[in-house]
Amino acid sequence: MKNKIQDAFEPIRAEDSLKRKTIAEISAKKRPVKGVFRRSVVLAMLLLLAVVSFGGYRVYYTPVDVISIDINPSVELNINRFERVISWKSFVPESEDALSGLSLKHRNYEDAVSQVLQSSFILLESTEVPYVRLTVASGSSQRRQRILTSLEETYLPISSMLVECREGAMENLGEAHRHGMSLGRYSTYLELSGTDQEVTIEEAREMRMLEIRERMQKMGPRRQDDRQQRKRGQ
Amino acid sequence: MRSDQQLSLAMERYADMVRRICLVHLKSEADTEDIFQEVFLKYVLSSQTFASQEHEKAWFIRVSINACRDLIKNFFRKNVTGLDEVIEPFKDDLDDQRREVLEVVLGLPKKYKDIIYLHYYEGYAATEIAEILGKKINTVYTLLSRGRDLLREELGGEGYEE
User: Fold this and answer.
1) How confident is the model at residue B140 (pLDDT cuts 50, 70, 90)?
2) B41 contacts in A (CB within 8 Å)?
3) How many Cβ atoms sit within 10 Å of the Cβ of residue B154?
4) Of A188, A171, A202, which Cα lies nearest the Cα of A70?
5) pTM given for the model
């Protein structure tokens, strides 16, 4: 009977297909160096992608220029090196809603300035002459010049508004914010305080932009034709 | 890691035996394929040296049986099929008598199957089986004796004393 069991098991043999498949699978698994290399390449690519993405993200979201739009009230646009608005800062809580309704982020600065100047953000008194002061600060004099020229070409010819374009200093930005003012308003205050020793920073913060301009005109005749002038190197 | 030549030689020597052990334990072609690959992959990756071919054969038996048992214990193992499907690949070589014997052996309780197979097909003595499976010699004797009784009951006749 022992022979019966041997005889019964005798035809049971590993199929050729099973052997071939096993050898193929094992051969594939025996190439760890290639696998490791492939995994390393994939990891390196992912790492590179992450670094590039992170680097790209940082570059995109790093502000290099500031455009301060001062009417009543004020808003600052933070511009990246691709001349896109990456954030904005309002200095009057009441105007936040009006600005939030605009599509400023990721817009070219020219579009963004245009949107702001046409929006309900502007709180003018009915009898008031629309007076706009655009102040540009940048780490690069070339970029600052380019933006100023572009803004001047667009807005100085507009007869329905009194527009001034000024150069601002990046180093004044922190100080301006500490006093609760935009860069443009703070720069205007510094300009006025150069001729008017009595003006205080609190006054400058509360005054309407047109009032500051009129006061500056009273203090110095050189301000008479500011609409077509641009003061640089503040 | 062992070479392709060593794998081919081991395949030539032990593939049929591993396949039979899979048949004893498993009821799924997919499970058989998995275990077959697992056993030979372990062999290729193993750094164990063998004192003799017998030593190597015993290693294959032990690894194959353990792999089958582990798979059976796995709750998530693939669906099993009936005995007919298990022996389907060999139907052309199995006459009625062989088929009947296989069905009886494969239908034995798990604890007897390895011992019956190793004793009656591979020709191992009880002491050798005890060593390969890591069981006490008396346990192997007992299981062999009870398995033999079951075979006799199912298949009838004498001659299971060997």
Assistant:
1) very high
2) 25-26, 29
3) 14
4) A188
5) 0.49
Phi and psi angles of residue A80, each rounded to the nearest 5 degrees, phi first: -90, 180
Point out the domain boundary residue: B68, B91, B114. Answer: B91
Mean pLDDT of B35-54: 91
B37 in reach of chain A (CB within 8 A): yes
Pairing of strands A74-79, A162-167: unpaired
Could you tell me the pLDDT band of residue A155, with boundaries at 50, 70 and 90?
A: confident
Closest-CA distance, A25 to chain B, in angstroms, reads 8
Residue B75: domain span? 1-91
Split into its structural domains, chain B has a count of: 2
Nearest-CB residue to B37 (from A9, A15, A22)? A22
Q: Give the separation between CA B159 and CA A183, rounded to whole angstroms.
A: 107
Q: Chains A and B: how many Cβ contacts under 8 Å?
A: 88
- How far B20 CA lies from chain A's nearest CA (Å)? 6
Tokens coding B86: 């298990």
Q: Does A17 touch chain B (CB under 8 A)?
A: no
3 state DSSP class of B156: coil
| 3-class SS of residue A126 | coil
Owner of token pair 């599509």: A103
- Residues making up chain B, counted from first to last: 162
Of the candidates A64, A210, A24, the one whose C-alpha atom is nearest the C-alpha of residue A131 is A210
Q: Are residues B159 and B87 in the same domain?
A: no
- Residue A166 phi/psi, 5° resolution? -130, 155
